[in-house]
UniProtKB/TrEMBL annotation:
Lineage: Bacteria, Bacillati, Bacillota, Clostridia, Lachnospirales
Alphabetical keyword list: Amino-acid biosynthesis, Histidine biosynthesis, Hydrolase
Protein name from the UniProt record: Histidinol-phosphatase
GO molecular function: histidinol-phosphatase activity
InterPro entries per the UniProt record, alphabetical: Histidinol_P_phosphatase_HisJ, PHP_dom, Pol/His_phosphatase_N, Pol/histidinol_Pase-like
EC number: 3.1.3.15
Length: 278
């Protein structure tokens, strides 16, 4: 059984109202041994009105208190989900050096999608659907993959790449316009770079929660990562509410075994801990 959910949000994220203690209680109830809080830190992201960041000092105070309260019952790790942008490389490196995060997820939540009249690059979140306005799904997915590749190339401040291919959730015809082979040129480069940089790939079960027939990334991508020698797989449900913790982890476990993985990975103090898939 997968006993760690390494991706979840609380009220420190602008899009969640979950109390950290309710998340921890639900994780215990579901039989997990380890969880990692990974609240959103999307610097410069104003897509949803307020900037998607939080007070990291206050976060550590609250989460460290919780770690003490749950000692012996549940391992609580303190992580963060960074919204990568290439020009934020130095800023994020400083942030992740300043605080003792157990685990850093690098996610691409914003793509440069057009220029304004003065030539400034504008960013958008695929969930806001502006990305799809003047593009086919295929063009939008390709732009997202290219942006992800650029970020993986530039940034070194994270341990695992979050929800590769989640853009498919927001396309007009969703997974119908998506297959690994259509983007194999870019996806292979992303996977090779992750392996070369000893970074992990996340299996994010929110794809299933959103009604897609697969978790992110698509099983063909997972198989390819394994084929290329990739071994660091982290698993997260990306829960924003307690009930979504460990969502469909049974399916994820079967999938990982079918793709040839023998281990999944937890992180503590930014170091991988391999757990056998039995
Ligand atoms: Zn995310
Ligand atoms: Zn998330």
């Amino acid at each position: 059984m997968i006993q760690a959910d390494m991706h979840m949000h609380t009220w420190f994220s602008t899009d969640s109202e979950a109390c950290p203690c309710d998340m921890a209680d639900e994780a215990v109830r579901k039989g997990l041994k380890t969880i990692c809080f990974t609240d959103h830190f999307d610097k410069d992201d104003l897509e949803w009105g307020e900037e998607g960041i939080f007070d990291v000092d206050a976060y550590f105070v609250e989460m460290q208190k919780l770690q003490e309260e749950y000692a012996g019952k549940l391992n609580i790790r303190i992580g963060i989900e960074l919204g990568l942008r290439t020009y934020l490389k130095d800023y994020y490196e400083e942030l992740t050096k300043k605080y003792p995060f157990d685990f850093v997820i690098g996610s691409v939540h914003n793509v440069p999608y057009k220029k304004d009249v003065e030539g400034n690059i504008l960013y958008t979140d695929p969930a806001a659907e502006k990305l799809f306005k003047d593009r086919t799904d295929k063009e939008a997915y390709r732009l997202m993959m290219e942006t992800t590749l650029e970020n993986v190339r530039t940034s070194d401040c994270f341990q695992t790449l979050g929800h590769l291919d989640y853009v498919v959730r927001y396309g007009k015809s969703r997974e119908k316009e998506y297959s690994y082979t259509d983007y194999a040129d870019i996806i292979d480069e992303i996977l090779k770079l992750l392996i070369e940089k000893e970074k992990g790939l996340e299996v994010n079960s929110a794809g299933l929660k959103y009604g897609l027939p697969f978790a992110h990334p698509h099983p063909d991508v997972l198989k390819r990562y394994r084929e290329l020698g990739g071994e660091i797989i982290t698993i997260g449900a990306d829960a924003h509410k307690p009930e979504h913790i460990a969502y469909d982890f049974g399916k994820v476990e079967e999938l990982l075994k079918a793709c040839g993985f023998k281990y999944y990975t937890e992180f503590s103090k930014q170091k991988p801990v391999f757990k056998q898939l039995i």
